[in-house]
Amino acid sequence: MYDFSVVTKWIDDLLTVTCGLPVWLSTTIECVLVGVVLLTLYAVFAMIYIMYERWVCAWIQCRRGPIRVGPWGLLQIFADVIKILTKEVITLWDNDKFLFYLAPYFVVISSITMFACLPWGNGLQIIDMNIGVFFIIAMSSLGVIGILLAGWSSNSKYTLIGAMRSGAQMISYELSVGITMLTVVCLAGTMSITGICQAQEHGWFIFTGHIPAIIAFLIYIVAANAENNRGPFDLPEAEHELTAGYHTEYSGIHYGLFYLAEYLNLFVVSGIAALLFLGGWMPLHIGGWTAFNTVMDYIPSPLWFLGKTFFMTFVFMWIRWSFPRVRIDQMLGLEWRYLMPIGLVNLVVMAVCVSMGWHF
Amino acid sequence: MADIQEKIAKLCPEAQFDTTGELLLVTVADEKWHDLAKALKEQLGFDYLNALVGVDWKDSLGVMYYLTNTETQDMIHVKVATTDRETPRLHTVSDLWAVANFQEREVYDFFGIEFINHPDMRRFFLRTDWVGYPLRKDYDMDEKLNPIRLNPEPNEDDTYSLVEDADGNLKRIDKKVFGPDEYVINIGPQHPSTHGVLRYRTSIEGELVKKVDVVSGYIHRGIEKLSEGLTYQSGLLYSERMDYMAAHMNRHCLCLCIEKALGIEVPHRAELIRMMMDELMRLSSHLLSYGCLTMDQGATTAFFYPFRERELVYDIFDKNCGARMSMSYDTIGGVTMDVQPDFVDDVRHACDVIEAHIPEYHKLFSKNVIALGRMKGTGVLTREQAINYAVGGPTGRASGFHCDVRKTHPYSLYNEVEFDEITYNNGDSYDRYMLRLKEMEESIKILRQCCDMMEKEEGHEFCAKVPKLIKLPKGHWYQQVEASRGPIGVYLESDGDPKPFQKPYRLHYQSPCFNLIGVVDLTCKDNLIADLITITASLDYVIPDIDR
Question: Residue A2 contacts by C-beta under 8 Å, 6 or more apart in sequence?
Answer without folding.
Answer: A122, A300, A301
